[in-house]
Amino acid sequence: MRTFSGFIQSFARVFPYTLGCFGAVLVYAAPEPLFDGKTFNGWEGDTNRVWRIENEEIVGGRPDERQPVNDFLCTKREFENFELRLKYKRGGNNGGVQFRSQRVPNSPEVCGYQADFSPGIDGFLYDESRRRRHLAQPSPETIAMFNVRPWEWTNYRIRVEGPRIRLWVNEVLSVDFTETEPAIPRKGIIALQLHAKATEIRYKDLVIEELPSLPDDSSKGTSEGAR
Q: How confident is the model at residue 11 (pLDDT cuts 50, 70, 90)?
């Protein structure tokens, strides 16, 4: 049986507006494309040399050329709480999706959370140019369930709500992480990574749904990988 709160959330997604509910203000927005398939409107980066558009896909790098340094294609807007869905095709290359991140001044780097991917680390949560380590990772048994194949499209889902971060690879939950450091920003850009030494990575079907701000105690998770 559908709960009242579930009904309200479903209704709000169809008819987005502000709802007052038990003293909290919930603002829902309908899902919208983050990439229009034809232009880099809303994005910034090296679109002359590193990034291009082919067949409504964002393509980073070249199949016959290794990227010398990390490079990122970044949104001009910042986002806080949201669910982002996209597809990536990596071959044997290393890439990732930054979120709640910032450009590093006078550097090609971006600083912040990254939904990582590469052979063996699809679905890992990394902290790029900040703590410089994986914050959470799935178990080997979970990784085996992803069924990621080289040069085939892989579905990635990123959901961030307050301190809670969840990632799914091909609809399998990879990590469920709760940030415990209060100084870590909860708002920032989204960026696509082409890792140093990678050749070509492709992204497509980027759709984002902005979520309402909720009290921290409404978002519960663990700092461990999915089990």
A: very low
